[in-house]
């Protein structure tokens, strides 16, 4: 129904964008350990006022900017197309709709049972939950994030243990990719020190550690995908 080539291509891009974003996140996960170690070293050398997560995000954005040169026809600066200056309303609406409901492209399973790790997921660091922020902020909303759920009797489980319990032990962070709606608490250095002292986990150095609500993991374990 469109004769403008730019509009037609942008509509196709809007359909494919969620799938493309997911694959881009997978690429960044392969290098996240390097970024994390470097950012932690910067904080140790400069001071606590340095935010490692912000440094990592800025580095990833810089990588994406440099990657544009792959499609720049040899020019140093990638000019924006006219339709990108003011995206068609229908394309923007499609972007919003697909972001809410996910990509219509079915994911390839290649015969693996639910929960089994993908070969290209190896090496994902404990910082994997951050990957959602490459192109969009983590949405801390929904029923799983209702503050009333947390009481003095609430029990928690380490993300690494939950990952293993659901059959994804060899793929750190896979749980956060598949279930971004889950409540998770990022442990700070004092938390990790206490957890290590109580022998709940090994000393992780600069790696991230997350705590999830035990009830959520039990619900997942009893679901059809994991039963």
From TrEMBL:
Annotated DNTTIP1 dimerisation domain residues: 8-73
Chief localisation class = nucleus
One Pfam family from the UniProt entry?
Answer: DNTTIP1_dimer
Supply the alphabetized keyword list.
DNA-binding, Nucleus
| Keyword Nucleus on entry | yes
Q: Where is this region: Disordered?
A: 80-123
Protein name (record): Deoxynucleotidyltransferase terminal-interacting protein 1
Compartments where found: Nucleus
**Highest taxon, organism lineage:** Eukaryota
Q: What does this protein do?
A: Increases DNTT terminal deoxynucleotidyltransferase activity (in vitro). Also acts as a transcriptional regulator, binding to the consensus sequence 5'-GNTGCATG-3' following an AT-tract. Associates with RAB20 promoter and positively regulates its transcription. Binds DNA and nucleosomes; may recruit HDAC1 complexes to nucleosomes or naked DNA.
Query: Per the record, what is one GO cellular component?
Result: nucleus
Is-annotated flag, keyword DNA-binding? yes
Which stretches are tagged as biased composition: Basic and acidic residues? 80-100
* Subunit structure comment from the entry: Monomer and homodimer. A minor proportion may form homotrimers. Interacts with ZNF541. Interacts with the terminal deoxynucleotidyltransferase DNTT. Interacts with TRERF1. Identified in a histone deacetylase complex that contains DNTTIP1, HDAC1 and MIDEAS; this complex assembles into a tetramer that contains four copies of each protein chain. Component of a histone deacetylase complex containing DNTTIP1, ZNF541, HDAC1 and HDAC2. Identified in a complex with KCTD19, HDAC1, HDAC2 and ZNF541.
Occurrences of domain TdIF1 C-terminal (ranges): 154-227
For this protein, what is any one GO molecular function term? DNA binding
């Amino acid at each position: 129904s469109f004769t403008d080539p730019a509009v037609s291509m942008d509509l196709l891009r809007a359909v494919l964008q969620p799938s493309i974003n997911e694959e881009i996140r997978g690429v960044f996960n392969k290098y996240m350990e390097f970024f994390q170690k470097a950012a932690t070293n910067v904080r140790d050398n400069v001071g606590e006022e340095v935010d490692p997560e912000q440094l990592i995000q800025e580095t990833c954005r810089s990588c994406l900017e440099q990657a544009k040169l792959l499609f720049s026809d040899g020019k140093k600066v990638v000019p924006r197309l006219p339709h990108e200056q003011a995206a068609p309303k229908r394309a923007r609406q499609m972007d919003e709709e697909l972001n809410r409901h996910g990509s219509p492209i079915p994911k390839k399973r290649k015969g693996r049972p639910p929960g089994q790790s993908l070969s290209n997921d190896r090496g994902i660091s404990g910082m994997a939950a951050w990957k959602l922020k490459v192109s969009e902020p983590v949405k801390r909303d929904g029923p799983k994030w209702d503050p009333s759920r947390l009481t003095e009797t609430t029990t928690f489980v380490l993300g690494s243990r939950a990952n293993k319990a659901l059959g994804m032990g060899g793929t750190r962070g896979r749980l956060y990719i598949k279930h971004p709606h889950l409540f998770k608490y990022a442990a700070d250095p004092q938390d990790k020190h206490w957890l290590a002292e109580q022998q709940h986990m090994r000393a992780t150095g600069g790696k991230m550690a997350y705590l999830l609500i035990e009830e959520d993991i039990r619900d997942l374990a009893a679901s059809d995908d994991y039963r």
